[in-house]
Amino acid sequence: MASSALVQRIVAEIRQKIQVKELEVGAHMSAQKVADEFKVSRSPAREALVTLANDGYLEQFANRGFFVLERAHEVFALNDEVRSLEEPEEYYRLSEDWLNNLIPQEVTEQFLRNRYDLTKVQVIDILNRAAKVGWVEPKPGYGWRFLDVAKTPETLEQIYKVRSLIEPAALLEPTYQHDMEILRRLKKEQQDMLDGGIDTLPADVLLKNGIRFHEEFIKLSGNPLYLMILKQMNNMRRLLEYRSMIDRKRLYKQCAEHIQMIELVEQGNNLDAAHLMKRHLSGSFARKSPILKLRVEDQSSTENA
Question: How far is Cα 133 from Cα 293, in angstroms, rounded to an integer?
C-alpha cells in the first residue's frame, strides 16, 4: 500500500491514465519522468511506480524503468459508485464516519490516530484538507470540531445556487478568452463520452471529466476569483456526493448540453451559453437533490433502528 497521501495521489492519477488509455500498452515510465510531471522528488515518484507494478499495472525491468502491461488495459469492473481520486483514502474514511454519526462532533488528534491507525502527520494532513473544504475547524486551544453544514441536503442546494450565479456570470465577463484550442479539447472529451465513454469509463473518471469541463470553462473568464470559488464548491460537493451512485443515462443529456455550450462560445454567443449554463445547473441539482435526501433519510433510519 502506498505510504503517503502524495504517493496515493500519484498512483491514482497514473492508474486513471492507464484506465482511459491515455497511457497505452508498452508506454515507458521512469521515476524521473513521473517526478517531473508531478513536480515531486524521485522518491515518491519511484514508490508510486513500484506500487503500480505490485498491483499489476506496470512491469519493471532493471536499468530500463517501468512499462504499462497489456493486462492493465483489460476491461475494468464497471462500478457506478463514485470514489473520488482527489483525496487519500483515510480522508474519506473520516468523512464517512462523520456523515454516519459514528464519531463525536469534537475530537482530538490522538483519538483519530488511534481510531484509524494513522501517524501524526497523516492526521494533520486530513484535518487540514477537511478544514480547507469547510467541514472541520480547529477548536480554540486544543482539539477539532466537525461542522453539521457538510451533512445536509441544504448544503448541496446552496452550492448549486452559488454556481448558478458565478458560472453564467463568468461567461459574460468582458475578459472572457475564446481559446479555441481549450474549447476543442473540452468538446472532444465530452464527445468521446457520448461515443461510448459514458457506458465504459469508471464512475470516478466520468465525475472528474464533468468537473474539469466546468472548471476549464470558468477559467476562461479571466477572473481567477470565479475559479477559486468553484473549486471550493466542488471540493464540498465531492464530500456530499461521495459514494453516491452515478446515473449514466442522465450523463447523455449532460454531455450534450456541455457540447452545446462550447459551440455557442465558439460562435461568440456567450449570452445564450450563459442562459443554458443556468438551466443546466438547475437541472443537475433537481436530479441530485432527491438522491441526497434519500441517503440522509436512510442514515436517520439506521440511527433510530
Answer: 21
